[in-house]
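Protein folding task:
====================
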Amino acid sequence: MKKSISTAVICLCLAASAAFAQQKPNIILVLTDDMGVGDIGCYGGSLVPTPHLNRMAAEGIRFTQYYSASPICSPSRAGLLTGTCPARWNITSYLQTKKGNAACGQADFLTADAPSVARLLKNAGYHTGHFGKWHLGGGRDVTNAPSIHAYGFDEYSSTWESPDPDPLITAENWIWSKTDSVKRWDRTGYFVDRTLAFLAKHKGQPCFVNLWPDDVHTPWIADEDDMLRAPQGAQGQQQFEAVMKNYDVQIGRLLEGLKKLGIDQHTIVIFTSDNGALPTFNTRSGQYRGSKLSLYEGGIRMPFIVRYPGTVKGGQVDSVSVLSATDMLPTFCKLAGVQPGQQPAVDGMERAEVLLGKPSARERSLFWEYGRNDSSFGYPRGKNRSPAVAVREGKWKLLVHADGSGAELYDLATDPGEQHNVATQHAAATTELKNKALGWYRSLPRLARTNSKN
């Protein structure tokens, strides 16, 4: 009898311990690669049906004013991980060869001394995983980048653009090959599987996961027939539509997997993109001007969906709150119970209440920079190429060349497509915002100075 009582007490204690641990929610950050706001049906996209992403929005909150930290891959990811402007760590473009990095005046990798949301959550008792693209150092001829472990991740599986790529998806020294064990068109599913296995392994304990697929980045490979036709990939609309359709299916698999694990109600899933689309097929940026490589809205205003069915009422649309990728570090820390005194100073704002369904106006300006010279940075053509510095404050957005010329001012409340430059009509606002933008830009560190209008 005593033995039975003791066993029951032990079981109750274990159950109580697991319940206490799960007072902290699981957090999954799904970061799509090069997805425009116009790619998703619930944001008005029409190229490809996206029933699973639409359902995610219907079961959560769809935000309309979320911004990436940059219009290109590596700095946008650095902003998410560190909560700071990526240029503070000398990350200004996509990380590549040592020669290419030097031409951009940037480091070869994100220093492991930078703040890391994964490290902070790990120290707070979270199990941390990264499954998908990294692109914060390593690959090509950069062989001295820190391991992903150094940023606070317990487990990881990453692509060719990382310090220690997964051999199942990197049989050769390129983005993918015919000899990969996991084929290109199965990679997003593979990363979803790794995520669900990680969560199952640590069920009952709080987890933080970066799920960062490299879909829907070009060039696209939809299936084996595509691989045979175009071994290096294609950039046609037909291939994009096939890849995007499969990507949506994999998001559905993730959500169903959480339900099967019994952790759906206690898991926050955040879905967004690192930067805008390219090519756009004239639809993938939605109503916005610009694309990837541009500081116009199409390059930096991204889809952002939050699903937390145990806490957040579904079907909400937040068009009030202005959010930034740099907000995610302090916001995730708040959700995970990390005390403010244990957090580093960052550029982002803590916005946990917003993610939980309480919209609020932004109290801090947002700044961006991209394109420090004309030779080593890529740009979209024509009217979608933007000046190199931008600031958003309230309804106003100003863009300006680094030398102070060519200021453009837009009222995003009435002109989200940035079609009408009102700098002349609002000279005082233009001057004030231009001074703020240039003051911020000139305060950034420089590994190498360039002379360029941009």
Summary: The CA atoms of residues 182 and 443 lie 45 Å apart. The chain has two domains: 20-355, 366-442.
